[in-house]
TrEMBL record:
<dbReference type="InterPro" id="IPR048423">
    <property type="entry name" value="DRL_cat"/>
</dbReference>
<dbReference type="InterPro" id="IPR005106">
    <property type="entry name" value="Asp/hSer_DH_NAD-bd"/>
</dbReference>
<feature type="domain" description="Aspartate/homoserine dehydrogenase NAD-binding">
    <location>
        <begin position="24"/>
        <end position="138"/>
    </location>
</feature>
<dbReference type="InterPro" id="IPR036291">
    <property type="entry name" value="NAD(P)-bd_dom_sf"/>
</dbReference>
<dbReference type="GO" id="GO:0016491">
    <property type="term" value="F:oxidoreductase activity"/>
</dbReference>
<dbReference type="GO" id="GO:0050661">
    <property type="term" value="F:NADP binding"/>
</dbReference>
<feature type="domain" description="Oxidoreductase DRL-like catalytic">
    <location>
        <begin position="160"/>
        <end position="321"/>
    </location>
</feature>
<dbReference type="Pfam" id="PF21135">
    <property type="entry name" value="DRL_cat"/>
</dbReference>
<dbReference type="Pfam" id="PF03447">
    <property type="entry name" value="NAD_binding_3"/>
</dbReference>
<protein>
    <submittedName>
        <fullName>Uncharacterized protein</fullName>
    </submittedName>
</protein>
Length: 429
């Protein structure tokens, strides 16, 4: 079977290419546009952003001539531009999801409710959808996948995101028949549950990133969400609420993931975890009960067993997203999707004391952070999924810092798409 690069080259040689629609021209979106512009058989033909100048600048930085960039919110004009091999800049995300010329839509917004809307609209318009929005995926991904399957399109997370990179290791090991003991990622900054856009501002400015995005990494929310996505895709679960967050080197990982009665540090197998000290890598801990396999693994200097580590020391974020686009369009396959439904839940925890009537804000904000539980634990506690949090959610009572926020402790001032989809998902599953 041809590899994706040769399949894309074949498309281009036939005078065709995959027409990509992108929502969100922030850091992730800009990088993806430039990466795709240097590839064969693919192009980002339309991009939406509330600040349309972000789109035009992204296209220009990708080397596209200003005369080939059409700024419009009109469907007919956008279609005509794409047919003339121009690219479209728009403020209207629904133009991206509905434009007939678009084959695959990519959500690079990072906002759960917006991501849910984009995925919903894309599937209704019979387009493959790539989610660079793990927060939306862990909240309503099982429903969206079921919808996509029914519509005959692909719903998938992205290569380059840590869950996608972990899934590649999982698929590799699983295909070869190894027992997979644990899956995980490195965390590249100390856990600070009180991190917020103000405390992260200086570092974010230095790195050229969003303060709230950086705060969501620092307070652990992003790690919880990413490993939640892996759990939903593989049937694995956290070994304890919030995971352990061990400190270890790559070489130490096989021993760490032995069970406690065997000299290790975990309670069981088939777990998701994060490790301080190995970022930006991802890993799979594998084992075999076959004597000859163990002998060969030791000969190959993979360690003494019984556990071995597969480690990938990088993930290229949105620069790898084109591989998921091609895989969805050409092979009709997902990079990562919630095949097992809700195995885990990232629940909402108060980052500070909240007063009755106080509005929650957003992921990486001042009011809440995420904490991973097994799905049944979250259900028993009636815990509010983190992806449902936005400024329309108000506390109905005083909530203490560090408490898990429950459904009955909040109300909505305006119902959002993601709440509606989650309600359907809870009934369906």
């Amino acid at each position: 079977m041809l590899n994706l690069n040769r399949k894309l080259e074949k498309l281009q040689n036939e005078g065709s290419y995959i027409k990509v629609g992108l929502v969100g021209a922030g850091q992730m979106g800009r990088g993806m546009i430039s990466q795709i512009e240097g590839m064969k058989g693919m192009r980002v033909v339309i991009t939406s952003d509330l600040a349309v100048e972000n789109v035009t600048n992204a296209y220009k930085h990708a080397g596209i001539d200003a005369a080939s960039i059409q700024e419009t919110n009109d469907k007919e004009a956008a279609s005509k531009a794409v047919q003339e091999d121009k690219v479209v800049a728009t403020k209207d995300m629904k133009l991206v999801t509905s434009l007939p010329e678009v084959d695959v839509v990519v959500d690079a917004t990072g906002i759960p409710n917006v991501g849910a809307e984009i995925a919903w609209d894309s599937i209704l318009n019979n387009k493959h959808i790539i989610m660079l929005n793990v927060e939306a995926d862990v909240t309503v991904g099982p429903l969206l996948k079921k919808m996509a399957d029914s519509a005959g399109v692909v719903y998938t997370g992205s290569a380059g995101d840590e869950p996608g990179a972990i899934m590649e290791l999982y698929d590799f090991a699983d295909a070869m028949g190894f027992e997979i003991v644990a899956l995980g990622k490195g965390k590249n900054n100390p856990l600070n549950l009180e991190a917020n856009p103000t405390t992260a501002e200086a570092e974010a400015k230095e790195k050229g990133s969003s303060p709230k995005m950086l705060a969501s990494f620092q307070d652990g929310t992003k790690t919880m969400v990413e490993m939640n996505a892996v759990a939903n895709a593989t049937g694995f679960s956290p070994d304890k609420p919030g995971m352990h967050g061990f400190e270890a080197s790559v070489q130490e990982l096989p021993k760490v993931f032995l069970e406690k009665d065997k000299g290790g540090e975990v309670n069981g197998k088939r777990i998701v975890e994060f490790i301080n000290g190995i970022a930006p890598g991802v890993f799979a801990i594998i084992a075999s009960d076959k004597e000859e396999v163990n002998a060969e693994m030791q000969y190959l200097k993979m360690g003494d067993g019984p556990n071995y580590v597969l480690y990938r020391p990088y993930h290229l974020t949105s620069l790898e997203t084109p591989l998921s686009i091609a895989k969805a369009y050409i092979d009709h396959e997902a990079t990562i999707a919630p095949y097992y439904g809700l195995q885990a839940e990232t629940v909402t925890v108060a980052k500070k004391d909240l007063k009755e009537g106080e509005h929650l804000d957003y992921i990486g904000g001042y009011t809440v952070y995420g904490h991973i539980l097994k799905a049944e634990e979250a259900k028993e506690q009636k815990a509010l999924p983190l992806g449902l949090v936005d400024r329309n959610v108000v506390s109905k009572k005083d909530i203490k810092k560090g408490e898990i926020i429950t459904y009955d402790a909040v109300e909505q001032t305006e119902e959002s798409t993601i709440w509606k989809l989650r309600s359907i998902q809870d009934r369906e599953f």
